[in-house]
Amino acid sequence: MRDLAADEKECGDYTEGFPADDAADDENLPSFTVEGVWGERLDKVLAGLMPDVSRARLQKLIESGSVEVNGVVCEKVRAKVAEGDEIQLLEEPRLDEALAFTPQEDVEFETVYEDDTIIVINKPAGLVVHPGAGNPDGTLLNGLLWHYPELKEVPRAGIVHRLDRDTTGLMVVARTLAAQTNLVRQLQERTVKREYWAITIGTAAPEFTVEVPIGRDPRNRTRMKGFPGSTGVRAKYARTRARTVGWSEFEGIPVSWVACRLDTGRTHQIRVHLTGEDLPLVGDQVYRGRAPGIAVKMENALDFHRQALHASRLGLIHPKTGETMEWFVPPEDDMIELMNELYFGPWDRPVTVFERDILPQI
């Protein structure tokens, strides 16, 4: 079993290909004649011709030798095609491995909204999203398969993005393959709005943007690290926009309530970006900043032993109806108590701090 739990992330997106199911009859395999295109990438053209199939899955089909261009197998996703070229798929985009990583299990979580296309849940602290090494069961995926058995027909039980074990808040789950593909594309195109509340040590600026690539820390592969000015194999581009809701202090130590919007979804993105700004999250066991002694002191004095991070708001375009939808959930009781102790309030404000006329929707 792949260790997917090791890659838990703040609303990290699934952009890799999905597994495939049984092969279709050869006479029904898709074929196309390219029109209105000159010198465009093969994978991009196929994505336009087959909008219900993720681009990543199409790339895997090409690389596996399952696509012909003008009667010749083409294994290069960057190969150029043009007007009049004939594209033939030798294999139906399909599921080729077990979809449910582990059996269904009665794991509790709150459902905020559901219809026949999507489910929006409020993930509690301590719940791992995916089974993996050290977490073979008791995960959100297990619970989804228990409460919604039909999700066994959808890759990863419909999960399209993740939250860290101890990060709480909103996640969307797709109930159909078409909805999953649509949501993945929305995440890639940044039409999904994701807002987080973070309680940090330090005095945050009223408004700021962090644009620092993120990659694995070479000294500790379980951690992520910011690599300013570096992109590619070592680190991936990452951008977080932030606005401070309030300031306070605890025993002479400044603290801030920061609302963050993700423009990308890298592993531990908010935690890494804020720590890089000398704003480590209260209670974070991994990223303690340049003054770890203060971080430990705050954690123990406030008796808060997980990162103070909550996915408060989620907005998206409904995959089936095209309607713009948005949800808000307050933090869990322990984080509410933390905010009250730090004199942050009212904590339950339902309106986003990101005004649409100042920051565009993402």
Task: Describe this protein with a few key phrases.
362 residues, alpha+beta, Pseudouridine synthase, 3 domains, 4-stranded antiparallel β-sheet, 19 strands, globular
What would CATH call the class of the largest domain? Alpha Beta
CATH H-level superfamily of the largest domain: Pseudouridine synthase
Sheet with the most strands?
A: 9 strands, mixed
Strand content: 25-35%
Name the structural class. Answer: alpha+beta
Helix content: 10-25%
From the 3D coordinates, which CATH architecture of the largest domain would you assign?
2-Layer Sandwich
Distance between the termini: 34 Å
CATH third-tier fold name of the largest domain: Pseudouridine synthase
Query: Measured on Cα atoms, how large is the radius of gyration?
Result: 22 Å
Task: Give an overview of the whole structure.
The structure is a single chain. By secondary structure, this protein is α+β, with helices and mostly antiparallel strands. It folds into 3 domains: 5-14 and 97-179, 2-Layer Sandwich (Pseudouridine synthase); 26-89, Roll (Structural Genomics Hypothetical 15.5 Kd Protein In mrcA-pckA Intergenic Region, Chain A), CATH 3.10.290.10; 193-341, Pseudouridine synthase (2-Layer Sandwich), CATH 3.30.2350.10. 18% of the residues lie in helices and 28% in strands. The protein contains 7 helices and 19 strands. It has helices at 42-49, 55-63, 140-147, 177-189, 269-276, 292-302, 333-341; strands at residues 12-13, 31-33, 38-41, 67-69, 72-73, 80-82, 86-89, 110-114, 118-123, 161-162, 168-174, 193-201, 207-210, 214-217, 220-226, 240-250, 253-262, 309-317, 324-328. Strands 8, 9, 11, 12, 13, 16, 17, 18 and 19 form a 9-stranded mixed β-sheet that branches. A hairpin with a 2-residue loop joins strand 4 (67-69) and strand 5 (72-73). Helix 1 crosses helix 2 (55-63). The radius of gyration is 22 Å and the shape is globular. Mean pLDDT is 83; it is low at 1-11, 13-27, 95-101 and 355-362. Residues 40-100 form the RNA-binding S4 domain. GO terms for molecular function: 23S rRNA pseudouridine(1911/1915/1917) synthase activity; RNA binding. This is Pseudouridine synthase. The active site is at residue 164. Its EC number is 5.4.99.-.
